[in-house]
């Protein structure tokens, strides 16, 4: 049979592709029907100009102020919140991930644990922050608890994928060699998981670093609270100083974390 004959006998799926395209078009039209644009707000351009002016003309005294009101202190507080939230969430996510993996505990326990993890992930971080502010009060501790819980939801999902992709042949070989449980975990499981786990934690830290600045707007510590206060009072040079410090540290962390994840992915 020639290539052309095989090509002519190929499955005809054009109607499937057209149906999907029409469905997506209809979904887009339905989603956009309630959107309405009434023009820019009266003072919207003034605010945009103020923010841009502040970025190019930041208050330099604030950038070098080492007190609790200065940019360095608030930036390091934001980083500390992100580090603690990510570390605690990454550690607590490990037992949840193993309990949610079917190849470890079976379907029943796995489904119950996955439902709990899904419940955590469905609630936005700002809602978690508003809940915990009522429990712990405003401040950095609330930010750490909020990021810890949100990190458990996301990191557990990534851990589960790595655990379910374990090469069981390695474990079977170790079992045949007479290795005990601890030796199988040390030599067969951890080497397959640690690079993925570390990469996931670093990726989540990137997210938490950005979220920590947002959570501050509701009183969960970090640079977000003074930033939103300055925007409301239109102190644009101070806004520029806070934003400039935040931009620099986020870009630096992004650069470092990307290189670390690249090395982990390459197995170096």
For this structure, what is the CATH class?
Mainly Alpha
Radius of gyration: 25 Å
Gap from first CA to last CA: 49 Å
CATH level 4 superfamily: MetI-like
Strand content: under 5%
Question: At the third CATH level, what is the topology name?
Answer: MetI-like fold
Low-confidence stretches: none
Question: Structural class of the secondary elements?
Answer: mainly alpha
Bin the helical content: over 70%
Count the strands?
A: 0
Number of helices: 13
Residue-averaged pLDDT: 80
**How many discrete domains?**
1
Major pleated sheet:
none
Shape designation: extended
CATH architecture: Orthogonal Bundle
Structural features, described:
The chain has 268 residues and is mainly alpha-helical. It has a single domain, classed as MetI-like fold, CATH 1.10.3720. Helix content is 79%, strand content 0%. The protein has 13 helices and no strands. Helix 12 packs antiparallel against helix 13.
């Amino acid at each position: 049979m020639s290539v052309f004959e095989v090509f002519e006998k190929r499955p005809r799926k054009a109607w499937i592709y057209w149906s999907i395209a029409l469905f997506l078009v209809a979904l887009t039209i339905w989603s956009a029907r309630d959107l309405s644009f009434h023009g820019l707000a009266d003072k919207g351009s003034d605010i945009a100009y103020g923010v841009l002016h502040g970025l190019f003309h930041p208050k330099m005294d604030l950038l070098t102020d080492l007190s609790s009101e200065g940019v360095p202190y608030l930036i390091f507080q934001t980083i500390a919140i992100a580090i603690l939230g990510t570390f605690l969430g990454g550690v607590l996510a490990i037992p949840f991930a193993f309990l949610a993996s079917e190849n470890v505990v079976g379907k029943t326990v796995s489904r119950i644990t996955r439902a709990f993890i899904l419940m955590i992930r469905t609630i936005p971080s700002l809602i978690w922050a508003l809940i915990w502010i009522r429990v712990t009060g405003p401040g950095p501790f609330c930010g750490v608890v909020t990021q810890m819980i949100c990190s458990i939801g996301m990191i557990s999902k990534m851990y589960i994928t790595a655990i379910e992709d374990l090469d069981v042949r390695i474990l079977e070989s170790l079992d045949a060699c007479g290795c005990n449980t601890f030796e199988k975990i040390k030599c067969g499981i951890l080497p397959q998981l640690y690079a993925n786990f570390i990469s996931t934690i670093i990726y989540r830290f990137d997210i938490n670093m950005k979220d920590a600045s947002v959570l501050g707007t509701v009183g969960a510590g970090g640079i977000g609270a003074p930033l939103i206060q300055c925007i409301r009072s239109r102190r644009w040079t101070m806004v520029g100083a806070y934003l400039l410090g935040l931009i620099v540290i986020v870009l630096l962390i992004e650069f470092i974390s990307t290189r670390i994840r690249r090395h982990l992915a390459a197995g170096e």
